[in-house]
């Protein structure tokens, strides 16, 4: 039994299949993809990677399946799916997710292509696991797939605790050990035992607070939006093909951006932390519904319109209008007074937390510091913002 | 400069006045009053005392006043009031508070009597402090008294973090350093700077979750109710006079109870953790409003009625119907978009947290295990409980 | 399966035998015996008890036996012995150990008498365990008894980590998880696997540093010496019989001391932290060998001699000359380059740590502040101390 | 006052000069240089960077100078030197230090060239600081320069605690707060106050244990030796000029190695963690003195000799024979019984720790797995190793 020391869970025991998988290139690559991508530009200690997170999720899955009444084969598939669950992430994780989806039509949870094109599939087969079943589990499908990706998944339990440890922000310290103790299988699906409404709420609260202070921090969002813009250029101009793009590491992407004339400026700005600033930063209730959660084409069209009015280069305007916040964990199943319910049915907090998520929603328009004012004015016109909508000048 | 090592805040620096106060008997006594009284019967590590908590509150007050634009005299008064703020607590802290109030007509925040009857007042005067002004500050009155007892007090910041450290329950880990950084004085009163709604909410959330899992745990409530009953007997029978009672330590009280015939059984039960059990444990919506938040006389009358119907000794029935939950921190002042507001006006979470507090409210009727059934039935009749009100048999 | 939350090991799972044992009075009593007795007078957060420590030792024993190739009966006996290993401690633990040994001729690891005179033995038998075998294991005898009391015991692993957590002193943070992983059985006895010299050294280092900063702190030693003196008086005068004495809690002892005229002054001084001071505090090399590690009678005779010369009451002089330091863990068995060795044979540090332990050794003579000078001078004469022996006036 | 959240020291307050320096490219570059270089290949959580470490050292320097009786100008110079002290590190820090010294004749503590060739010097001047004085302080020269680089420097205090936090190895948890409290200036130089021998020893112990388990782990040493070999090739072949080399980030270096034919194989092996293995791993007493601590030319000559005898490509043999261990902190000045001494004069542990450092010293010969045996045999002959010298086959 090999053991690895982890800063969050202390020792993690690895079964042979896990060891063999760790030795593959796609898993080793995760050492060079930061878990929180551009958040390190705000929280300098947040340099932990998807590699150590993957080990953590594997560990929690192991602890969970040890206590669940399931057979060894399923237990093993769940553990292994937990280990490889992030292998499909592109460089900078979520920050290039949209660009990859546009060009490959594929979400990071769909890893079938990787099983075929790398050693991963072969190693799984060598160890008696069905690659397709593992891939389905990574995507949350199949028996108890929700343990890996779903309303009660160990992915979230690990990242909340790990992100708290590495940023220094204390809000992610959920009681993951109790969540694991409370898991049971009811009608073939996961649920939390009686007496755990507060435990379940705490995970939802943790994510809400981490969103507000860490995950949705404007500096990280700006850097992410700049990466998306530059990545799109790279892919649209055919500098890198999408399959190769999806396998870059964080630094590979920065290096590739730096080498291409039309994206070099973005690379320099990110590397030197000389980022665009907020021309607009508007609360949800000040933004017309038509301009919330915009798709890619509409976003680009609006950016061009704003740039034209402001009299600036279209590259100098980035519009960032996220979709409505969602909280899958509020649909977690939980036993209350002997009956199986959804958390949102029994929790007095879920509605408040949803409101809170809408409260911290912001539409951003970013631009170089030198053109902030004209861009802000043009954007306010184009987006039909109310007076006073802009909470940050 | 003397420094003391603390398990939560590391080194705490003490000014000479603080050192001299620590050497008085009333402060040394706090070494023998557990911060969480009977909670150690549920969380065995929760043996921290009001002494170390007092040091912690002093430390946080020192950090706060160093950053506020106030004069040295006020700063010193606030620090010293923070240090002595718990000196008025009776044995087992909040668990004997009601009994002491009934017999002395005095809350633990009113410490004038201690300043006169012990060394405390003299030491304060010797160090150039006005005992009355310090006492007022402990009670939350006077300039910035709210730093010691109020909507943004350092008492709460310390106990949430400290109780988390010693119980092992992670929910109390608020970002107290950020709360201290965010404090400012607006129109002579404390407020939180712009950008801290989530910081303020986190403290409220922490208390709500700690209530649900720690402070309101039924085992601790039962032990507390038994202590109240036994203390009342001691005081009513004149075994101890109220002034002396208020100065006992936890173990003094247990020893005194053990020596008096009519209370010895309670002392044995608490010491051996052989507690009463729940005959009734009813949710708020199943309890008629008339039976929620009962005063002492009404409680005793109902207990007697239940005992009579059940055919048991009146000492065998304890009714515990707490008042409505309150959350002073929701009225904390905070700057939002340049205007001074109450947290509850700007937070989407406060209403949810209030609902949550009502959700975990429970009326309890406790009795020895041997008579649980008749007491439960009698209580359901007397309290006019709905069918199914009793969530724990 | 019942689980208990612990501040050090998080959740601890209890088997039914453990639960039943915890419900006995001798185990519940440990809630009122502080793990570090008088150390809280120096480190105010050090209020953790032998109860939570017992749970921690049980937990580590459980983790250890799960990995060792032993049968279920032995595993269970080891776990249960770990749980009850401290049940024989008197009030204030080690601080009254000598007095109890003088009057009962019994060390705290000998618990046979408790198994007979309390519920403990019956509960063990009811659960199919042989009380004598458990008692032998507590004393380090029988198969793998050294896991509970010996060179590689889990008692030490728990207390080093726990004392660090509660004092705030960081030196006790050994890698106990790695020590547990490294345990193996060689020729029927425990040993550490290849590659763990540094792991074993770290535990020895931790204890040496904790001795220097925590366990042997002079304030705690003075309070302990005062307790020993007062306890001896109580026992010699027959105020309490030795069997009853050994079952008191910390506060019981203080209360008993307070009630007896000849010991009341000691009780007041300890409670108010108004302790004797150091009249002499001498390094080992300045103390003639004949005066190091004195037995009881010789100590009392010397105290009387000092008191007479100084012209003070004999109660005003306490001589505290500890024995030579020992380090059982340096004899731990460890595999190095394929051979079984003692740690001291392979570690370059053991000799240095032994020297270090001798370095921090001190002979103390304590007295009330008002008579420090005459007592110090008399003691220097009587003990034939070198000039300059006294490092603290 | 800007504050930054750090995972180790919580909030770090930045003065304007520090903020301006952080905005320069040389400081931002440190975000992409891992503090522990290749250690992450063993401890996956060890991804913290020299950027966050620099903030931590700045923070500790600030705390230290606040308590020292020095003027504001010196205090500021010390703080700022602490902030920029690592700016001269090449990619992978210590792992390319030797290669840079061979080609530039410059140690990473000599940063004058950077002050001239980047914005750093200008920013220092703009804020009224003398770049040369700052550079001298970084190198440990000038008034109290030892606070930044010396026997009692804050660099070490930060990295021990930080490396422990991020690897999960508990041995680095020194009591840095107490070290800072204990600092005083005696005759113009730093010393520790009376009563701190154990405090000083603990830092030395921590480094010894961290060496044994983390810093000198063979996997990290092998990766480092491979990087040195590949870097030398890059520089010798003129692929990168030395000045540019010294400014690469970790990933820049890997990318550069990957692009050059003669080093691409090394880059692949490091990225996929497919490292050379140990053909020889010999204890100090089994290695003739002539082969310990070899210089570069001698090392290369011996490697070629081994390769020739083994019949393998010279690139397939790496010889790694480190110099004698040293411990600057053992010369720290400390007041003992009123006199100023060196720690090594008063500590019983220093000699043991030195022996311990020699004990964990190893000479390594590394080669691809397929040629381990012939290389091992040839190396044993060439290096005249005793039979049984090789502790790991």
From TrEMBL, chains A, B, C, D:
GO terms for biological process: dGTP catabolic process. One of its GO terms (molecular function) is dGTPase activity. It comes from the Archaea. Gene3D superfamilies: Hypothetical protein af1432. InterPro entries: dGTPase-like, HD/PDEase_dom, HD_assoc_2, HD_domain. Keywords: Hydrolase. It holds the Pfam family HD. Residues 50-160 form the HD domain. This is Phosphohydrolase. It comes from Natronobacterium lacisalsi AJ5. The lineage of its organism: Archaea, Methanobacteriati, Methanobacteriota, Stenosarchaea group, Halobacteria.
């Amino acid at each position: 039994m090999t053991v690895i020391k982890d800063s969050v869970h202390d020792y993690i025991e690895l079964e042979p299949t896990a060891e063999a998988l760790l030795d593959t290139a796609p898993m080793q690559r995760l050492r060079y993809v930061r878990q929180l991508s551009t958040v390190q530009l705000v929280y300098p200690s947040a340099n932990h990677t998807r590699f150590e997170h993957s080990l953590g999720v594997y560990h929690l899955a192991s602890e969970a399946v040890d206590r669940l009444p399931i057979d060894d084969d399923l237990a093993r598939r769940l553990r292994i799916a937990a280990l490889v669950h992030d292998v499909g992430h592109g460089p900078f994780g979520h920050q290039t997710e949209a660009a990859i989806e546009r060009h490959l039509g594929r979400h990071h949870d769909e890893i079938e292509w990787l099983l075929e094109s790398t050693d991963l599939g072969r190693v799984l087969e060598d160890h008696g696991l069905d690659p397709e079943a593992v891939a389905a589990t990574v995507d949350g499908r199949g028996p108890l797939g929700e343990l890996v990706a779903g309303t009660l998944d160990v992915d979230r339990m690990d990242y909340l605790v790990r992100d708290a440890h590495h940023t220094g922000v204390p809000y992610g310290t959920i009681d993951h050990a109790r969540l694991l103790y409370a898991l049971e299988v009811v009608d073939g699906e996961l649920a939390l035992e009686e007496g755990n409404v507060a435990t379940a709420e705490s995970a939802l609260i943790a994510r809400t607070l981490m969103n507000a202070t860490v995950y949705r921090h404007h500096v990280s969002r700006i850097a992410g939006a700049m990466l998306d813009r530059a990545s799109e250029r790279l892919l649209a101009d055919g500098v890198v093909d999408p399959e190769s793009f999806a396998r870059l590491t964080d630094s590979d992407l920065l290096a590739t951006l730096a080498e291409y004339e039309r994206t070099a400026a973005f690379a320099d700005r990110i590397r030197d932390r000389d980022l665009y600033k907020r021309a607009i930063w508007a609360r949800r209730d000040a933004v017309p519904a038509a301009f919330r959660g915009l798709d890619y084409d509409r976003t680009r069209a609006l950016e061009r319109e704003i740039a034209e009015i402001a009299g600036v280069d279209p590259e100098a305007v980035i519009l960032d209008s996220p979709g409505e916040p969602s909280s899958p964990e509020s649909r977690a199943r939980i036993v209350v007074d002997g009956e199986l319910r959804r958390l949102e049915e029994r929790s007095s907090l879920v509605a408040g937390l949803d409101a809170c998520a809408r409260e911290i929603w912001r539409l951003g328009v970013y631009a170089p510091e030198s053109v902030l004012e004209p861009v802000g004015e043009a954007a306010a016109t184009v987006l039909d913002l109310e007076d006073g909508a802009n909470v940050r000048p």
